[in-house]
Structures are given as structure tokens and as C-alpha cells.
Amino acid sequence: MFTSQPWLETLENPESRRRVHEAAWLRGTTPGENFALDLAVEQAGLRAEKAGLLGFSSWADYALQDRTAPGLDAVRDLLTRIIPAATANARREKAEIEAEAGHPVEAWDWPFYAARIERERYRVDTSALRSYFELDRVLAEGVFAAATALYGITFRERPDLHGYQPDVRVWEVREADGTELGLFVGDFFTRPTKSGGAWMNSFREASTFFGEHPVVSNNLNIPRPAAGEPALLTVDQVNTLFHEFGHALHGLLSSGRYATLSGTAVPRDFVEFPSQVNEMWMYWPEIVSAYARHVGTGEEIDPGVLAAIEASSLWSEGFRTTEYLGATMLDLAWHSLAPGTTVEDPLAFEADQLRAAGLDPDLVAPRYRSSYFKHIFGGGYAAGYYSYLWSEVLDADTVEWFRAHGGLSRENGERFRSELLARGNTRDPMESYRRFRGGDADPEHLLRRRGLLR
Ligand SMILES: [Zn+2]
């Protein structure tokens, strides 16, 4: 879990906030049995040693062989471009927060005043919006409709096809000319035995060699409505539907000969790109006016409300980008160690590495610390936490391309499909990107989108 705890936004008592923050920040730093920091040091050392045995200068050097980023230098270059803009924004945010608080604020006060400013400045009551986001309507008139407008594909629910669980729904997906494309499985509601969060699964990958059609699913954790009541979504859940469906499209629209190279079987720093791009249609005016209608009256949502939500998401972006960059730099620091190097004092190592990268952990603490950075020590993200930013650079650049070329159209969709979605890993994804875009992605679009350019 993040360094910054959600409770900090609502705890009125500064002393309680300080205690919550310190309990989070010091997790796993007290020596004892299975001391997390010792394990981190040992694991980083073993990874460096393994990379050395394979002829690489570090684990990062080894891991990046299979990524779209050409190498560690390219990743560091990108981060070096973004760190000054992000920290400058974080400093500005801190100044606004101190003006609101009327006194200097510590790390544990920041989320409390940031949330207060957000409420006062944007006045968006997101809970009242749920009546405009009814699951079936968001799916049919939003998520599916955008895919039809872009790729010509159509969706028909097949109640005769049963999933692995009574809640699960199945749609057949067809090409514009009616030929079969595959099946889309929707598993939207939460249940006690279900994993948390949201994800896409591929039950069967597309393979033209075997003539096999893809079967993909989207899983969410929407609370099940009472019997006979419609399922109403939060803004975040609508966003998640569009996001996960971007992964589903990547699987469905694949035209790979071999299943192992098709669909989402792309490098880790590329796999989020199609799903991030698909989120753009959530705010596309003609899609919004079709899906965001009041469940009782059918009245359209006030377009200004969604615009305000989009605008409010920029507030605190300096903080969020900076805490993310902190975690990214820690990941790269641990995995850039040369074989045979030992880190004697991991906490000093952390602080030194962050400061050397131009980050100030006293201004904004990294999102994760070495003692609770499960992504890189317990998950598959070793030397890969940068991936979110890497693919978002492509995403922001692609959104600009769509906007410059008329947005939601079959022509644009076909180009995105044939050069990117359909290719899977049969061609270097960055090559696919250049063919689609006609050049490399410009990170400035990301900075502008996050409001970090001034
Ligand atoms: Zn995703």
C-alpha cells in the first residue's frame, strides 16, 4: 500500500495524522525476524549477480532487453525531463496548501488540505453523479459504441452462453461485415471469493494459424445492486470500464499467427498503452451524451460537470507525479547495482538516490519505500515501475494524434487497429508506434496533460 494513507484526507487532528503517516513510512524498517530491508538488500544483490552471470552489467540492463524502452539511458532521459516539472509543481501546490492552512505543513498535513482545496475549488459532488452512470447503458452506449465507431465491430449479448459463475455475461463480437471475431466475457460484480481490483483476462488468444478466435474477459469489483435495482457506477468505475475494455480490444483485435505473440503478449512497458488510450473516449462529447443519462429521467448529464471532473483531476498532479517518480527512481536504483555491490545502509541509500535524482523526500515521500515496495520485490515490476509513465507518454501522444485527425472515426480506428492493436508482439511495438504516428512520441504531451507545463 502507498506511503500516503487515504485516512490523512479526513483526520482532523494533526497529531493523529502524524502518527498515521509515520506508521506508514516506517513500515518494515525495524530490525527483526524476516526484516524487510535485509531481504530487499539480499534480493537486489542476487538479481545483480544473476544478471552478471548472464553477461549484463545490472538487473535493469538485463530486464530492459525484453522491453520497448531501448535501454536504461532512454528511461533515465525521460525521467530526467519530467522530474524538474513535477517537483516544481509539487512546490507550487505546497505553497497553495500552506496558504490554505495558514501555517507551514508537514507531509502528513498535505493530503488533508489538498482534499479541502479540491472540494472548495471544483465543487464536484461525485456521489450525486452515479445516477447518470448505469452499467448497461455505459457499456452499450459508451464502451461498446466507441469501439463500433472506431473499428466497426458489433456486440450482441448471448444469454445462452454461460460463464463460470451465474453473474458472468457473454457477448459475441463481430466484424463490420458480420464475420465472427471472438467473445467478450463481462464479470463486473464483487463477490467474496473474487480478487480485488480490476483486470483483463485472456481465456484464449487469437491465432490465425489454428483459426482460433479470442475469448477475453473484463473483471471489475462493482458492488452488486439490490435485486431489481440498476447497477450505478462511480466516475472511477466508468473510467475503469473504458480502461479494461482497452485491454480487451487489444486481445480481440489481434491478427497474430501465433497465440504466444498475439494481443496483450507485449512487453510490460507497452501493455498499458492501448488501455490508457481507450480511456479518452470516456470524455468524448458524443459518447458522453449517449451513455451519461439519468437512470430515472433519461436526461443528459450537464457536460460542464464532466469537464469539472477532468479539471479537478489536475489538482495535486505535481504531488502524484512526484511520489510516483520517487518510487520509480528507487526501483531503478536497486536494480542498477553492479554485480558484487552490497548496500550497507538501505535507508541512507534510498535518501541518497532520491536526492541524486533531483527529488526531495521531505517535500514528497516516494509512493513506496524499499521496505514495502511489493511491485518490485514481490511482483514482476523489478526495473519496470517506470512502465506506467513510459506507456502514458505514448498514450498522451496518441490522444493528440486522434484529436488532430478528427477524433472518433472509422478511418482513425482502422489505422490504430492495423498498425498497433492487431500486431501484438509480432513486430517491435515501438516500430508499430512509429508506423502509426509517423514519428516518435513527444513527452511534452504528457506534461501538458498532467498540467505540469507552465
Ligand atoms: Zn491496465
UniProtKB/TrEMBL annotation:
A Pfam family of this chain: Peptidase_M3
Protein keywords: Hydrolase, Metal-binding, Metalloprotease, Protease, Zinc
Cofactor: Zn(2+)
Gene3D superfamilies assigned to the protein according to its UniProt record, in alphabetical order: Collagenase (Catalytic Domain), Neurolysin, domain 3
Family statement: Belongs to the peptidase M3 family.
Family matches, as SUPFAM superfamilies: Metalloproteases ('zincins'), catalytic domain
Coiled-coil stretches noted in the UniProt entry, renumbered to this chain: none
Ranges of residues in domain Peptidase M3A/M3B catalytic: 11-451
Keyword Zinc: yes
Top-level lineage group: Bacteria
Protein name stated in the entry: M3 family metallopeptidase
Cofactor binding note: Binds 1 zinc ion.
